[in-house]
Amino acid sequence: MRTTTAMLALLLYAAPLTPALAQESTVPAADGAAPETGDVGTDTVLATVNGEAITLGHVIATRAALPEQYQALPDEILFEGILEQLIQQTLLEQAVGEISRATELRLENERRALIAGEKLDEVIADAVTEEALQKLYDETYANAEPETEYNASHILVETREEAEALIGKLNDGADFAELAREYSTGPSGPGGGALGWFSAGMMVKPFEEAVMALEPGTIGQEPVQTQFGWHVIRLNETRDKPVPPLAEVAEELVQKLQDNAVEAALARLLEAADVERADLTGIDPSLLRNDDLLK
Question: Which strand (E) or helix (H) includes residue 11?
Answer without folding.
Answer: helix 2-14
